[in-house]
């Protein structure tokens, strides 16, 4: 069973920065690398080397991990992960008791396979895959024994498939949503996993999403209200059409439906009705009564881990400065206590066997990138499943500080700071003298930065910069008052929060006020464009990845299947571009309205197939800057979407970014080398504005030509 889809929809501008943790991977695939810590390597007899004076190679930070996305089959007999086959990520499977006998069961040669799930009978796996980043996913099945790959949704390329449900009660089918009939709405189909036969279950009369019970029967439809609220409507039985529960507009961004209990009567959800921080709530769908199972006065309930058969909640997490897990009931509390003893670091519980005994757990720490473990919940013991990219274990990774920075109006902004190696000899959290600062802004904006391993923080601090990530107002998880404080504040108080945080670093003696860069992806790209255009005296340069330059044209270009959710998200927080007055205000809060104020260098990266922030958003601001002879370097990737999935493309962009920042802030640079090899990189403007870029492009072109002649 899956969570409601509106959180996927409202995270329209999710981070593409390469720093999301494993549980965020549905928004951004393969943007984090993980590694075994140095102590584990020493224990295994691996010789470490003195790398304190060497730059951490970009390939170790942003290339393909050795293994990633570990899972265990429902029957516990197999383990799986994604790893490269000829440089492209594919699914690998091994006996649980003999991981050395792993074999690749897919052989994709394009963008790779990333997001996959075990079928309930453990005989096959299913995965979603699009073309070139267009997010029009097809659903594929790969049989464990035969390794035959079948497209279960072979209806062309102009539709999107969603997995609505997999169930142990009906292991022979997968339930999907398809918007073939109407691009705005998803009809419900069942697909037989053996034959591939599709059966229409229900046409969608106008619901934004569905909730299925544990027998894969559609039980609730999500009806979006004009004020941005949501009604859960019965779509089954004698009570079809009745409103079961209402989520008010003010609660939408901090509430989420999780799924049915094992009795198919009660529904679990996180709900902020009558409170600021969302609590874990149990809803009786027949009476409408609710009961609170868990809550926190510090932050909203974040993750909920349930038993795979009974669906009873076992544990939940709260994430304020750091993630903390709490057990429910005596058994859950004992299991979480054992888990915390067995595995250190910041934890995410990712999957379990059908009997609930074996859990796959992901653990990381700022200086100890993620590891995957199998935790035996009965014995309280954990065994290492694997680490990804062990090479990072010998690298001098830097600690991260979890901070509260006070905004001008008193809001507390949870933030994360990493300092350059050697800059803080007395370990008081302040460098001996101010250093250049990279302000990295997360996407969403209804998302958040977290404590843990962060590839951008390690990369940039290794090059000599302090790195600051700020959970500005509108970030998720801190309560509805914090989220709703962002209404009408794009380019307003949301941006003021970022400026307040930068000012704090200057006042504390951390940052050199004349050497501050702003950078980010998606909403972070928008914030970058706002920074260099609306507040040009604060920043020395900016790096924008797939950021919108015009809020009005951004919303007008959204995919059709987002339209049912716009009232509660973009119209509410930003405005409706069909209203002339609102449209005018939206443009005023966009970078395109103040291009003439840009006076610092800007680097823009774009994926040509991006359906969220279409290429026209980057094209129009580059054209406006060119017309005014302003310095902008524009990089495009014709085989990418909302972020850069192919490692060759990531490596090429970060190589360019590194040289760009060095020109601006004076940090260290790893040479371009072969960073452009096999990339689809197109430098559409300003290649002469970055030191060494033109020569590197010429060199790569000559090497490609020589290989072609051979």
TrEMBL record:
This is S9 family peptidase. SUPFAM superfamilies: alpha/beta-Hydrolases (SSF53474), DPP6 N-terminal domain-like (SSF82171). Transmembrane segments: none annotated. InterPro entries: 6-blade_b-propeller_TolB-like, AB_hydrolase_fold, Peptidase_S9_cat, WD40. Keywords: Hydrolase, Protease, Serine protease. PROSITE patterns: PROKAR_LIPOPROTEIN. Coiled coil: none annotated. Residues 457-667 form the Peptidase S9 prolyl oligopeptidase catalytic domain. Gene3D superfamilies: alpha/beta hydrolase, TolB, C-terminal domain.
């Amino acid at each position: 069973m899956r969570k409601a889809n509106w959180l996927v929809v409202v995270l329209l501008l999710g981070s593409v920065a390469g720093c999301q943790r494993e549980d965020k991977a549905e928004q951004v695939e393969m943007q984090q690398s993980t590694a075994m810590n140095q102590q584990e390597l020493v224990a295994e007899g691996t010789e470490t080397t003195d790398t304190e004076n060497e730059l951490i190679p970009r390939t170790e930070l942003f290339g393909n991990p050795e293994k990633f996305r570990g899972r265990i089959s429902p029957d516990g007999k197999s383990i799986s992960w994604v790893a490269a086959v000829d440089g492209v990520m594919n699914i690998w499977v091994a006996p649980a008791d003999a991981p050395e006998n792993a074999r690749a069961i897919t052989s994709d040669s394009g963008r790779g396979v990333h997001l996959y799930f075990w079928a309930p009978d453990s005989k096959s796996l299913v995965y979603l895959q699009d073309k070139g980043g267009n997010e029009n996913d097809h659903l594929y099945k790969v049989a464990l024994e035969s390794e035959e790959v079948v497209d279960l949704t072979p209806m062309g390329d102009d539709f999107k498939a969603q997995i609505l449900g997999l169930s142990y009660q009906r292991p022979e089918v997968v339930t999907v949503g398809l918007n073939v009939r109407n691009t705005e709405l998803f009809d419900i189909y069942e697909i037989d996993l053996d034959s591939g036969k599709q059966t229409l279950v229900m046409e969608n009369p106008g619901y934004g999403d569905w909730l299925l019970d544990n027998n894969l029967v559609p039980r609730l439809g999500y009806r979006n209200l004009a004020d941005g609220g949501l009604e859960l409507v019965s779509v089954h039985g004698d009570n079809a059409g009745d409103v079961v529960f209402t989520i008010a507009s003010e609660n939408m961004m901090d509430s989420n439906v999780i799924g049915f209990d094992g009795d198919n009567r009660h529904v679990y959800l996180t709900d902020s009705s009558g409170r600021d921080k969302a609590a874990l709530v149990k809803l009786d769908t027949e009476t409408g009564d609710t009961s609170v199972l868990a809550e926190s006065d510090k932050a909203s309930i974040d993750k909920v881990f349930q038993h795979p058969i009974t669906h009873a909640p076992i544990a939940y997490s709260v994430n304020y400065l750091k993630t903390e897990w709490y057990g429910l009931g005596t058994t859950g509390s004992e299991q979480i206590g054992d888990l915390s003893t067995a595995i250190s670091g910041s934890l995410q519980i990712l999957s379990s066997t059908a009997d609930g005994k074996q859990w796959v757990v992901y653990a990381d720490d700022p200086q100890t990138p993620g590891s995957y473990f199998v935790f035996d919940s009965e014995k309280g013991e954990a065994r290492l499943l694997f680490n990804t990219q062990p090479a990072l274990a010998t690298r001098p990774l830097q600690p991260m500080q979890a901070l509260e920075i006070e905004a001008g109006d008193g809001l507390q902004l949870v933030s994360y700071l990493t300092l350059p190696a050697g800059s803080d000899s007395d370990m008081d959290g302040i460098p001996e003298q101010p250093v250049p600062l990279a302000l990295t802004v997360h996407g969403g904006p209804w998302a958040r930065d977290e404590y843990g391993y962060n590839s951008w923080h390690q990369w940039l601090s290794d090059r000599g910069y302090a790195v600051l990530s700020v959970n500005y107002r509108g970030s998720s998880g801190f309560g509805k008052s914090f989220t709703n404080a962002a209404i009408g504040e794009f380019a307003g108080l949301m941006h003021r929060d970022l400026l307040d945080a930068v000012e704090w670093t200057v006042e504390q003696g951390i940052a050199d006020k004349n050497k501050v860069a702003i950078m980010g992806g998606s909403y972070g790209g928008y914030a970058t464009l706002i920074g260099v255009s609306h507040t040009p005296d604060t920043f020395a340069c900016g790096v924008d990845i797939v950021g919108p330059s015009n809020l009005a044209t951004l919303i007008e270009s959204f995919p059709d299947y987002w339209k049912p959710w716009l009232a509660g998200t973009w119209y509410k927080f930003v405005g409706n571009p069909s209203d002339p007055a609102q449209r005018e205000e939206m443009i005023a809060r966009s970078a395109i309205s103040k291009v003439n104020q840009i006076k610092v260098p800007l680097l823009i990266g774009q994926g040509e197939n991006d359906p969220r922030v279409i290429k026209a958003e980057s094209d129009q601001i580059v054209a406006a800057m060119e017309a005014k002879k302003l310095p902008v370097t524009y990089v495009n990737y014709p085989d990418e979407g909302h972020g850069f999935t192919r490692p060759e493309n990531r490596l090429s962009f970060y190589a360019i970014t590194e040289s760009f920042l060095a020109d601006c802030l004076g940090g260290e640079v790893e040479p371009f080398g072969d960073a452009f090899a096999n990339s689809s990189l197109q430098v559409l403007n300003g290649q002469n504005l970055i030191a060494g870029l033109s020569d590197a492009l010429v060199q790569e072109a000559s090497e490609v030509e020589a290989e072609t002649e051979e």
